[in-house]
Amino acid sequence: MGVGLPLARVIDAQDVSARRARPQPNDRFVFVVGERKGRVISLEDLPPGGAPLTGYPMDVATGIVRDDSRLNQVLLVRLDPGVLDAQTRARAAEGIVAYSAVCTHTGCDAWDWQAASGTVKCPCHFSEFDLKAGARVLNGPAQRRLPSLPLKIADGAPVVAAGFVGRPGFESGGA
Ligand code: FES
Question: Which protein residue's CA is at the shortest distance from atom 3 of ligand 1?
Answer without folding.
Answer: 125
